[in-house]
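TASK: fixed-backbone design
INPUT:
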């Protein structure tokens, strides 16, 4: 009888263990089911967030804010309607000087605010600043899908042409604000970030090139501002020509704006009055120049062979500007 009791006890214990194990498995199945439901809810929430972000985004990109310059320090603050996750860049470039470590970037969050910090290199050169959203360099796939991998969906007053190189030249569209600082810029100043107002000429894109240029002398440089019928992105080169000499470092280059306008600054040599023949300024556009964008050749020919008119000269256009005495 004792053995039977013992066996019964053992059987009872075994039954208890089995019952406990079964109950644990059921709990686990319930936990797994709950986890799966929670995970599905999270995925749905993330999808809803993505849909909300895309729904609120606008292809007509806007920037607002300002640039504060304090000595060689530049602080750029503002707001944009770019979708969260988009990355903007601030670029500092100087004529005839390679710039390193001057750029900054910022990832846009829900409030659309941004801030970038730059140091302006201490060179006596014209500084070109650009605040830009470049869809070609984005990592967020939602951003790429919305604006287009080459910016084909971008709209608005800040829309500009650009070019990237990935085994071959790729024409793209970006949204950007650009500003030029002269070599002797005011070291304490504020600059507003505002939408440009382009007035496109009726003859833009014609092969008979028109250059309407005004020049002025500002401290230690010449300012050359002009209108033209050049297509957007055409690289315009302005420089000082000194007969009998090779003048290095007295030049500037810029891409024509959407309306064909441009602004160049050329440094003035200290010994300008010492030359036998009078120096003069030259403004030129050569479609075959190494840093011209790909689409320029489509308008004017790869060697500039389609250029015509009074300014056309051996595959380029050139305007000579005498200096005032």
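OUTPUT:
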């Amino acid at each position: 009888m004792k053995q039977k009791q013992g066996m019964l006890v053992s059987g009872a214990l075994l039954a208890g263990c089995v019952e406990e194990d079964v109950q644990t498995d059921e709990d686990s199945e319930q936990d797994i089911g709950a986890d799966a439901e929670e995970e599905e809810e999270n995925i749905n929430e993330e999808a809803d967030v993505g849909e909300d972000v895309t729904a609120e985004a606008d292809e007509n990109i806007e920037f607002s804010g300002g640039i504060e310059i304090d000595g060689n320090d530049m602080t750029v603050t503002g707001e944009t309607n770019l979708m969260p996750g988009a990355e903007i860049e601030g670029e500092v470039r100087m004529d005839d000087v390679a710039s390193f470590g001057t750029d900054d970037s910022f990832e846009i969050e829900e409030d659309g605010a941004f801030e970038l910090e730059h140091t302006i290199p201490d060179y006596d050169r014209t500084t070109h600043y650009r605040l830009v959203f470049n869809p070609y360099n984005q990592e967020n796939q939602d951003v790429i899908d919305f604006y287009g991998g080459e910016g084909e969906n971008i709209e608005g007053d800040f829309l500009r042409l650009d070019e990237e190189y990935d085994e071959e030249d790729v024409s793209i569209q970006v949204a950007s604000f650009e500003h030029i600082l002269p070599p002797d810029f005011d070291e304490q100043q504020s600059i507003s970030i505002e939408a440009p107002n382009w007035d496109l000429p009726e003859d833009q894109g014609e092969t008979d090139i028109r250059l309407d240029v005004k020049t002025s002398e500002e401290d230690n440089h010449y300012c050359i501002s002009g209108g033209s019928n050049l297509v957007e992105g055409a690289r315009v080169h302005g420089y000082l020509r000194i007969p009998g000499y090779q003048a290095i470092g007295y030049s500037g280059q810029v891409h024509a704006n959407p309306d064909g306008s441009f602004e160049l600054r050329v440094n003035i040599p200290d010994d300008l009055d010492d030359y036998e023949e009078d120096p003069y300024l030259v403004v030129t556009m050569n479609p075959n120049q190494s840093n011209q964008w790909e689409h320029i050749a489509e308008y004017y020919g790869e060697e500039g062979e389609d250029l015509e008119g009074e300014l056309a000269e051996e595959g380029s256009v050139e305007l000579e500007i005498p200096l005032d005495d």
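COMMENT: Residues 67 and 73 are 10 Å apart (CA to CA).
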